[in-house]
Amino acid sequence: MTAAAFSQFSSDPVKPSIVLVHGAFADATGWQHVIPLLERDGYTVTAVQNPLTSVADDIATTRRMIDAQPGPVVVVGHSYGGLVVTGAASGSPKVKALVYVAAFAPDSAEPIGPLLEKYPAPSAAALGPDAAGFFYIDRAKFRDIFCQDVGAQEAAVMAATQKPLAGASFAAQLTMPPAWKTIPSWFIVAQNDHVINPDLERFFAHRMGATTTELASSHVPFISQPAEVVKVIEQAATAAEGTAAGIQSETLAGRA
Fold first, then answer.
1. Is residue 3 in a domain?
2. Quick check: pTM over 0.85?
3. Which CATH number goes with the domain that contains 78?
C-alpha cells in the first residue's frame, strides 16, 4: 500500500452502528421518533425487541444483536434497558460507547429492587403484578407516571400496548463485570422522571464518570424530546468513530 493510499483510507471515519434497547412497559417501537433522525444522519440503526421475561433472556437477545453488527457499535439503553446493556455489552470488543437514557446502570451483584427502595419514585404506587408475576403500570396512572410530557393520544396507545416486566427482574443480579467500567459512557438524566428517581440516575452517572446531560423531561425523553436525545447519541457515536478510526490506522500502519 502506498503512503498516499494509506493516508486516504486511514482518514475515513468508521461510522458505528446504533443498537437501541427499550425498557420495561414498552417495546422497540418506542424509538420511532429517534430512528429516522439517526438514519437521516447516515447511521445504521437496530432496535432490539426484548422479551422482558428475565434479565438473562434480555441480555442474551441484546448480545446477539450487538454481535450481528458488522463493525463498531454504540449501544443505547432506556430505563430497565440500561441494566440489560450493562450486561450485554460487557466484554464486547465491538461496543465503543454506551448511552444511558433515564436508565439503570447497576454494578455486579447489585439488584435494582433495593436501589428503587433507597431512591423512591411515584411509580412504586402504580405498579402491580398479573397472575403470572409480570408487572404493569396502572393504565389510569400511566401517563402521569411514565410520559406526562407526551400527547394524550400517544400516551393512551403506550398504556394500552405496554409490555410487562417479569417481577423476578427486580431481584436479578449481573454475573459479569458491568460494561460501563471499561466502555466510555454518556448519560441522560430525566429531571421530571416519575419512574426512576432522577437522583438515582445522577448517582449512576456520577459513579460511572459519564458525560452527563440533564433534560427537563418525563421518563421518556426519546419520545418527548427526540432531537435532544439524538444529539447525545451522536456525540457518543462521534467519539466512537474516532476510537475505531484510531484502531484502523494502527492496523493499517502495521500492514504498510
1. no
2. yes
3. 3.40.50.1820
